[in-house]
Design a protein that fits this description.
Elements (H helix, E strand, L loop, with lengths): L9 H15 L6 E5 L2 H10 L9 E5 L4 H4 L2 H11 L4 E5 L14 H6 L3 E4 L3 H10 L4 E8 L4 H14 L4 E7 L3 H9 L7 E4 L1 H7 L5 H5 L4 E4 L4 H17 L4 E3 L11 H10 E8 L3 E10 L26 H5 L31 H8 L4 H4 L1
Parallel strand pairs: 1-2, 1-7, 3-4, 3-5, 5-6, 7-8, 8-9
Antiparallel strand pairs: 10-11
């Protein structure tokens, strides 16, 4: 261990790189591994871990950024609500600049007079509703199982305290259906998943048993320091070499077997699974969440608005990036008109976006990885 701590020891990084190299030499064929977390993607890029991998090990980013997988029709709906004179939108900052149809955005709607407020939690939006009783405050409920329990908690508080003017526009996504869809994609051929640490805190390690039992792929839950990610990659390769897939929890300080039961109960109380569309993956059955019918009075989708025909940005291949079909440099717009200051696609906007991560950390090697 060095002064940098156990998770930032250059000696351990080098040793793990050598272990990964040795295991890669034992693989019967090239392997495709996928990280399913935007935080992992940024950590991998910042540490240069992709460049340390053997040539027969491909590490691709998956649909782990909730803002990125949100389709344009949801953004169009949010903008239409924002333009109602009686509505205030509360949203996390990442969503404000994401392009909707015809290069519109919540940021541009705000410039046209819409009341769009950046908040740091759903309870902040609930506080806005208390402060603005004559307006309907709509929180944009975008996220995976990590975020949705906090939204359910805010809804519970709104019900208990009689804040009638607080609503949500549901754009939530569930993790299992897209993982199954990715495994079934014959073009991608995913051999193993580096699973998301944050979502796993809620779901628990046992949740992922379907990956090994039904799908036959390797799986590991890892932390976010470079050596933790390398340990996760080495574990995946160990499983592939041994041909014994399992769910390995290498993040036990945060992730338990059963997950957060209280958060899971909140989700079950407020939401039901519904078919929903994903950017890049299309419509996936039972992959989203909607408010239960008894809570329709909290559903912002019940408010009357006129919606345009959804239109994806021309030339943007964000969907292919999210599906793992290409790396960001494979998009003709990457760093050529599309960048974090002037984003064309959602993957370049979010702090968890794959294109944003590559732009910041991996542009010098993009020609070799495209």
């Amino acid at each position: 261990m060095t002064d940098a701590g156990p998770f930032h020891d250059p000696g351990r990084v080098a040793a793990l790189a050598a272990r990964i190299e040795r295991l890669a030499g034992l693989l019967p064929r090239p392997a495709t591994l996928m990280e399913v977390c935007g935080t992992h993607t940024h950590a991998i890029g910042e540490a240069g871990l992709r460049r340390l991998l053997p040539t027969n090990v491909r590490l691709v980013a998956g649909p782990g950024c909730p803002v990125c997988v949100t389709p344009v029709d949801y953004l169009d709906h949010a903008i239409a609500l924002a333009m109602r004179p009686d509505v205030t939108i509360g949203t996390f900052g990442d969503l404000v600049r994401v392009p909707a149809s015809r290069r519109d955005s919540l940021e541009r709607a705000s410039a046209r007079g819409a009341d769009v407020r950046i908040v740091y939690s759903p309870r902040d939006a609930l506080a806005l509703a208390r402060a603005l009783p004559q307006r309907t405050v709509v929180f944009l409920a975008v996220g995976f199982e990590t975020t949705m329990p906090t939204i359910a908690a805010a809804l519970t508080e709104a019900e208990a305290t009689g804040v009638a003017n607080f609503r949500v526009l549901c754009g939530a996504k569930l993790l299992e259906p897209p993982l199954r869809a990715l495994v079934a994609d014959p073009e991608l051929r995913v051999d193993g998943f580096l699973l998301p640490g944050h979502v796993s805190v809620i779901l628990g390690a046992d949740f992922y048993r379907f990956l090994t039992a039904d799908c036959g792929v390797a799986a590991v839950i890892a932390g976010f320091a470079p050596v933790e990610i390398q340990q996760g990659i080495a574990e995946l390769l160990e499983q592939l070499v041994a041909r014994r897939p399992r769910v390995a929890n290498l993040y036990p300080r945060a992730v338990s077997a059963g997950g957060n039961r209280t958060a899971q109960a909140l989700l079950a109380r407020w939401f039901v699974p519904v078919d929903t569309r994903w950017r890049g993956l299309g419509s996936i059955p039972a992959s989203g969440l909607a408010l239960r019918p008894e809570f329709a009075h909290r559903d912002a989708a019940q408010l009357a608005v006129s919606l345009p025909e959804p239109l994806e940005p021309k030339g943007c291949r964000c969907g292919d990036v999210l599906r793992g079909s290409i790396s960001p440099p494979g998009c003709p717009l990457f760093a050529r008109g599309c960048n974090p200051d002037h984003p064309i696609g959602a993957c370049m906007v979010s702090s968890e976006g794959t294109c944003a991560a590559w732009y910041r950390h991996e542009r010098p090697v993009r020609a070799a990885d495209a």
